[in-house]
Amino acid sequence: MSAIGWELPQWAERVAASLGDARYVNLGVGLPAKLPHYLASRSIMFHCENGIVGTGPAPDAGDEIPELIDASSNFVSLQPGGVVVPFEVSFSIIRGGHLDATVLGAYQVSAGGDLANWSIPGARIAGVGGAMDLAVGARRVIVMMHHTNRDGSPKIVDELTYPMTARGCVDVIVTNCAVIDVSPAGLIVRDVPEGMTIEELQGMTGAPLRLSVAGTRGR
Amino acid sequence: MTHLSGDIRSDTLAKPIVTAAEAVEGIADGSVVLVGGWGGVGVPHALLTALAATSVSELVVVTNNCGMGHRGDVGLLFEAGRVRKAITSFPIHPAGVEFRGALARDEVEVELVPQGTLVERMRAAGAGLGGFFTPTSAGTPLGEGKEERTIDGRLQVFETALHGDVALVHGHRADTYGNLRYRYAAGAFNSTMAMAANRVIVEVDEIASDPLDPEQVDTAGIFVDSLTVVGAP
Question: Which of A50, A125, A129 is facing B188, going by the closest CB pair?
Fold first, then answer.
């Protein structure tokens, strides 16, 4: 893990910027589930697979409604205007292209935007949940993941070695060390932390990176 | 309310109100059993507890989760050795020890299905469709061996309708006609499964003495075969 990467608040700020003006957003479990705290000032309806459109903050102890939970099994509230739709409608929202964006965690992303986030190689069994539906259905797929594995090996790779979730679905990768657009021209670096060089970043990355024409912030 | 007054026809249109044990009587070995709920919410605990106590075997269970360590969840069926196969989307949970035990003993086969595909396969069954094409899982290990077609420039796989012999459904409130309401997200999988099985067995927290508001019904009584009152959780 790089010591010079962004801490969560700065990292989350980059994810928020990548969301643009997205209004209806599904957040995956793990790292993306930490985002609402940093997006409190934004006008976003968070969608959950179970049919909630507009999850709000955790209720006070004693005010929990057992049937209002998120994908991490945490109690949630409904924000003003929030609704609960039938389950098959919830997946029509996902699969029918009605979500502006989803932010998903990942094991690997390839140079071509292939996503691996549901199973590890050789696993006898895994849970897939709504991962594949979100990856093919959301209008914009943003991956939020650490730049490397704990052993330093890259999570951004030429070709996936982990089981694929969906081909060519990722639009933006926001790691603790870079904001990278996945484009037909390749992986374009748009932002790096203060003090990091593109050479350092490339050294932690398993696929060729290019600098954005506008240059990067940082350094 | 626009209901006609009087209940002359209610004797024939009323759904049988039975105990959980009576509700699960006659489920045959090898049946495909749809089990409602998502993430531990909307799970038909009383019906699962009753089914686990029968001697039925070789069930094919369709369930989003395979047990989360909650009392009366689908883990009971794995623990009791009732299940031959699970068709499921998110089977692994740290507290789902009964399922993992059955898996370790090689007692249970698993068909892993993306969550949206799982619900849509049952929606198709309920709607009388043979199946559908979807880009979900195309090109992935879960799409292997499926018929493929490129539609609108996207690779898609064919998914077949998934019928149940029996559905176990948890609702919040019913009327005697079998019309149902769910609470918040507790309708997840329940409302779809209620349309996808030959025999739909429902447990509810309460049965109202008057018909439900006809504009506030989630599952209509036409889909329901029996009601069991379990009381509020």
Answer: A50
Task: Give tens-digit pLDDT for B135-193.
Answer: 999 999 999 999 999 999 999 999 999 999 999 999 999 999 999 999 999 999 999 99
ipTM of predicted assembly, 2 dp: 0.94
Are A33 and A25 a contacting pair, CB within 8 Å? Answer: no
Indicate the range of A37-46, B8-17, B61-70, B115-124 predicted with least confidence: B8-17
Average pLDDT, chain B: 94
More confident residue, B104 or B8: B104
A84 touching B (Cβ < 8 Å):
yes
DSSP class of residue A214 equals T
Contact indicator for A102, A28 with CB cutoff of 8 Å: yes
Residues 100-139 of B with CB under 8 A from A: 103, 110, 112-117, 119-120, 123, 134-139
This prediction has a pTM of 0.95
Residue A87 to residue B90, Cβ atoms within 8 A = no
Give the closest-approach CA distance of B166 to chain A in angstroms. Answer: 19
- Give the pLDDT of residue A219: 41
- Enumerate the β-bridge partners of residue B154: B151
* B139-to-A78, A154, A185, B224 alpha-carbon distances in Å: 37, 23, 23, 38
Interface contact B91-A166, CB threshold 8 A: no
B69 in contact with A at a CB cutoff of 8 Å?
A: no
Q: What are phi and psi of A53, to 5 degrees?
A: -115, 105
Query: Nearest by CB to B185, which of A67, A127, A163?
Result: A67
Mutation for testing the B interface, residue in A26, A46, A50 having most B CBs under 10 Å: A50
Closest C-alpha among A52, A94, A99, A59 to residue A76: A59
Quickly tell me which residue has 């945490």 as its tokens.
A74
Distances (CA, A) of B78 to A187, B48, B197: 46, 11, 21
